[in-house]
Amino acid sequence: MTVLIINYLYHALFEQPHRGGSISNIYSQMPQSSIISKVDFDKIRKDFPVLDQKVNGHPLVYLDNGASSQMPAKVADRLDHYHRYEHANVHRGIHTLSQKATDAYEETRRKIRGFINSRYNEEIVYTTGTTDSINLVANSFGSLHFKEGDEIILSQMEHHANIVPWQMIAEKTGAVIRVIPVLDNGELDMEAYKSLLSKKTKMVAVIHVSNALGTVNPVKEITALAHEFGAAVLIDGAQSVPHQPVDVQDIDCDFYAFSAHKMCGPTGFGILYGKKEHLDQMPPYRGGGDMIDKVSFEETTYNVAPLRFEAGTPPIAAGIGTAAAVDYLTQIGMKNIAEHEQELVQYGYEQLKKIEGLRFIGEPEHRASVLSFVFDEIHASDIGTLLDKRGIAVRTGHHCAQPILRRFDVPATTRASLSFYNTREDIDRLVDGIEYAKSFFEF
Ligand code: PLP
Hints:
single chain; alpha/beta; Aspartate Aminotransferase, domain 2; 7-stranded mixed beta sheet; 4-stranded antiparallel beta sheet; 40% helix
């Protein structure tokens, strides 16, 4: 019985490798009917029931997508259908309902593979989010490869999720953390990065798109440089996967981490992409059911990757909902989303720049979806509170990226983070809201 189930899973996961090729190749393989050629983003906005409400007497303007994006009705319906009619545990039941749930849950792996263009389904590890994905690599890869004096390179603009797990494993193994500085315009100092690289470098872990500044980092170049020294590369893709096509074979990174709830999916589910050659060698990170081959009190042997990393009953509904989110985004087209958001973020930048006293934190050449700013005389939380009174949701604070705020000598910023369902009208409302907030302060 155990053998049957393991065989079933093995065959469900192991398929022909999918070789390189751009994301546009993937779209060209999709049936034409599933591609919207000229996207009507105003119509798409209606897919999100949550946006159609008043907050504090004003129509909601949701500009906190960096924290969590909203969910289209199709994804919510998929979750609802699963909970009402399809729920059973996965990977362990011989009965029909369990097999159906397993099929639907494993289908997500195939969809994610296509979405980020990994070679194999078994390079897709299910986690609970970006944070969990990075902890997995730090613990498993780190305990296998790091030793005293080895170096882990991070950047000054990392989210805490891509700092703290490395500090914890560095403390255990004696590895040392080195930091790529950030220039005044919010871009990485690539010359400094090159000078940090050496034979001692075992891991380079950097953010693809900064959640605090919006900077898009040159991850392909960063990866190629690290590989010249034999170092592995992890990319934190939490803020990139929802906003642009991502092709992990093209980047050639060793690991790529992201979260479903920032890409129109449910909370509690995330992905770790890892090259097969790494995952096959890496020890499990958590023990329990599902991740084993045989268990006795004398000896336990482990399942194959990626199942080896997925102990216990997983977030089944969230996994299935994530497949619906991937379908939804794929149907709009990530290239269309990227183009639309670029136009919107540029409009936002130009409009906000006109506001007296407003100062952007980070003015990178390549920016995605994030506008982060301060007023020297007004605390960000006051701006955020007053915007909320006008129905405008933004994030204020350090955005879980304290080192980069310290670099710019500010305790907090106000961050408007966009998604494809935002409009120019949302930006205009934000500008009005900021002027309203400013009117409470004299300077
Ligand atoms: N990395 C970045 C760049 C983020 O923006 C976030 C969340 O805001 C994370 C990591 C952590 O993601 P999660 O909380 O979904 O694990």
